[in-house]
Amino acid sequence: MRTKTKELIFQGALKAFAEKGFNETTMEQIAEICGVAKGTLYYNFSTKEDLYIFVMESGVQHFTSMIRDYIEIVSHDDFRERVIRLTEAHLDFFENQQDFCRLLLSRSWGTQERHHTVRHVLQEYFNLLESELHTAQGQGKLLASIDVKTAASSYFGMVGFTAMRAIIYGQSLDNVALRSSLQSLVLHMMGISDQE
User: Fold this and answer.
1) How many helices and strands in the chain, by DSSP H and E?
2) pLDDT digits (tens, 9 = 90+) for 93-145
3) How far is CA 185 from CA 26, 160, 179, in A?
4) N vs C: which end of the chain shows fewer Cβ within 10 Å?
């Protein structure tokens, strides 16, 4: 659970990083956006890199928690419905967390060190997704010939960049045509009929 100060810092830093990018954002600008003293910001985070890691980790934890909430209500036997719920969770999260979507899918990954940070932070997400796919494969609901890591990466790319494009063009993700088209594509990618 984040303190009130850390929540303020999280929201301000997320907004700054999403709008300006990592390199163009200063700690002074973040402190100003957050409405906290620069000393308070440095007391909590000694470097901008530390703050960036905190923002990414917090965002991904919230994301994976939401995904779990969406799919937990569906039996593991109903892979088709779990995939639908998984996709709904992604679109609902990105619709409500557009700054995080922009940050996650932007060029702010920057340096090799930041690539490592993003990979590390996203590991929890990919572990969840790959576990879901391995379970389905073990039940014979996902073709044994499909490489789970490739399927998880493809899924993330398909859903993530569809969401990002809509956000860039100012379109809502709460859009029936977008959701049904993406759902059909995802089900097809997983080898599931979308006509059930």
Assistant:
1) 9, 0
2) 999 999 998 888 765 445 555 666 777 788 999 999 999 999 999 999 999 99
3) 41, 13, 10
4) N
Q: Which domains does the chain have, with CATH numbers?
A: 4-189 (1.10.357.10)
- Cβ(34)–Cβ(5) below 8 Å: no
List alpha helices for the chain, DSSP H: 4-20, 27-34, 38-44, 48-71, 79-96, 98-104, 112-138, 148-168, 176-189
Q: Taking Cα atoms as reference points, which of 131, 124, 135 lies closest to residue 149?
A: 131
pTM of the model: 0.87
> Left, alpha or beta for 47 (phi > 0: left; psi -120 to 50: alpha)?
beta
User: What are the CA-CA distances from residue 110 to residues 17, 35, 52, 83 (Å)?
Assistant: 12, 27, 12, 32
* CA dist., res. 67 & res. 89, Å (int): 5
Tell me which amino acid residue 171 is. Q
CA distances, 92 to each of 58, 85, 87, 124, 129 (Å): 17, 10, 9, 19, 17
CA distance 125 to 21: 23
